[in-house]
């Protein structure tokens, strides 16, 4: 696992601004407080990444929003330990300007253009 300082150094190189939205049912939950404290320490010297809090009908969720309006990447729970590095990797992926897009075959591009609505997916990650 990387140190907080090395993770912050990686985020300083991001070119595109990001907005992190912390969503929680409770304003005074331990998880929200721990997450806010962790993100404040991580992002203290990074002016291009802003955090806001929103009331939600769910437990703690951290959403990464890009400036181009794409659907956010969501993390459930407090991003500590291995999850913090995963959150940083997601911020790096979203914060690239312009976004890294792989070369797609003409057939695949044509198939993708036929999708008329957003595609939602879940990815669950654990170090075990």
Quick structural overview:
The chain has a single domain (4-113), classed as Glutaredoxin (3-Layer(aba) Sandwich).
List strands and helices in order, with pairings.
Blueprint: H1 4-12, E1 18-24, H2 30-42, E2 49-55, E3 61-66, E4 73-76, H3 82-94, H4 106-113
Parallel strand pairs: 1-2
Antiparallel strand pairs: 1-3, 3-4
Helix pairs in contact: 1-3
Structure explained in plain terms:
34% of the residues lie in helices and 19% in strands. The protein has 128 residues and is an alpha+beta fold. It has one domain (4-113): Glutaredoxin (3-Layer(aba) Sandwich). Strands 2-1-3-4 form a 4-stranded mixed sheet. Helix 1 (4-12) runs parallel beside helix 3. It is globular, with a radius of gyration of 16 Å. The two termini are 14 Å apart.
Low-confidence stretches: none
Order of helices and strands: HEHEEEHH
Q: What's the overall geometry?
A: globular
Number of domains: 1
Structural class: alpha+beta
Jot down its keywords.
Glutaredoxin; alpha+beta; 128 residues; four-stranded mixed beta sheet
């Amino acid at each position: 696992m990387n140190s907080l300082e090395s993770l912050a150094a990686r985020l300083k190189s991001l070119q595109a601004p990001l907005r992190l939205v912390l969503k929680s049912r409770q304003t005074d939950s331990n998880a929200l407080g721990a997450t806010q404290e962790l993100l404040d320490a991580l992002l203290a010297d990074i002016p291009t990444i802003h955090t806001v809090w929103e009331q939600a009908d769910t437990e703690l969720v951290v959403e990464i929003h890009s400036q181009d309006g794409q659907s956010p990447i969501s993390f459930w729970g407090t991003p500590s330990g291995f999850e913090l590095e995963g959150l940083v990797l997601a911020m790096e992926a979203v914060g690239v300007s312009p976004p890294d897009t792989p070369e797609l075959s003409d057939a695949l591009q044509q198939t993708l253009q036929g999708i008329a609505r957003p595609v939602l997916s879940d990815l669950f990650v654990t170090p075990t």
